[in-house]
Amino acid sequence: MKFPDALVSGRLLRRYKRFLADVELQGGETVTAHCPNPGSMMGLAEPGMTVWLSRAQNPKRKLKYSWELVAADDTLVGINTGHPNGLVAEAIKAGTIPELADFENLRQEVRYGKNSRIDILLESEGAAPCYVEVKNVHLRRSPGLAEFPDSVTARGAKHLVELGDMVESGARAVMVYLVQRNDCESFKIAADIDPNYDKALGVALERGVEAICYACTVEPEGIEVTRALPVEV
Fold it and tell me: Quick one: which of 44, 64, 156, 186 is 20 to 30 A from 143 by CA?
């Protein structure tokens, strides 16, 4: 995924109301940007951090900028939770994720379960469908170790139950954790932050749900899924 226009860098002044961030641009102008991330953003939203913003494509949009990247722990981190679904779909089509290769059709945001939408549905004639749920990962508290979630996610636990239901109905279900940062070598669940999610994943794995993790190369020009990370369970 390439950003359509060059990102604008600045200094984070504050993040507030979850979806707003005040940023001082390099020229001294202060703007309020959309923060496309509902999580806690632990360690990634401290005042003074260098951030990168994209300009809105729609000239009528109230907030002209969206927060995309932040420099943290000597690396770049992608914070926009709107990108992972597209990044994974792009990687599947490119053959970067061999666990999800050889399907004829890929559809996104397909209704399933109980009032839910699956992020990606893979289908081939004569084969069981594959339901793919994608979660954005950007938490790193120990060197080289990516973790999810960074806050309690009841919705995430619900998705794991529904993936298990799909497996029991005869389909395949895969949980993809996508790490939007350059400095991680493995992945695990942050059980101390959300023990219920950790338990839900354990149950889902026992029911036949698969869990895989891939990391991205994050640069100001764009973000690309590039390598698999081992999942510690």
Answer: 156
Q: Give yes or no for a contact between 174 and 212, defined as CB atoms under 8 angstroms apart.
A: yes
**How far apart are alpha carbons 229 and 214 in whole angstroms?**
5
pLDDT at residue 58, rounded to an integer: 83
Q: Mean pLDDT score of the chain, rounded to an integer? A: 96
- The CA distance from 119 to 68, in Å, is 21
Taking the CB of residue 2, how many other CB atoms lie within 10 A of it? Answer: 9
The tens digit of pLDDT for each residue in 104-156 reads 999 999 999 778 899 999 999 999 999 999 999 999 999 999 999 999 999 99
CATH code of the region 8-78: 2.40.50.580
Token pair in block for residue 130: 């594959």
159-191 per-position pLDDT tens digit: 999 999 999 999 999 999 999 999 999 999 999
Cβ(141)–Cβ(189) under 8 Å?
no
CA distances from 139 to 24, 50, 181 (A): 24, 17, 9
Dihedral, CA of residue 216, residue 82, residue 118 and residue 212, to nearest 10: 20
Six token digits for residue 22: 């005040």
Tokens 């939408």 sit on residue: 117
Question: 84-232: which CATH number, 3.90.550.10, 3.10.129.10, 1.20.1070.10, 3.40.1350.60?
Answer: 3.40.1350.60
In this prediction the pTM is 0.95
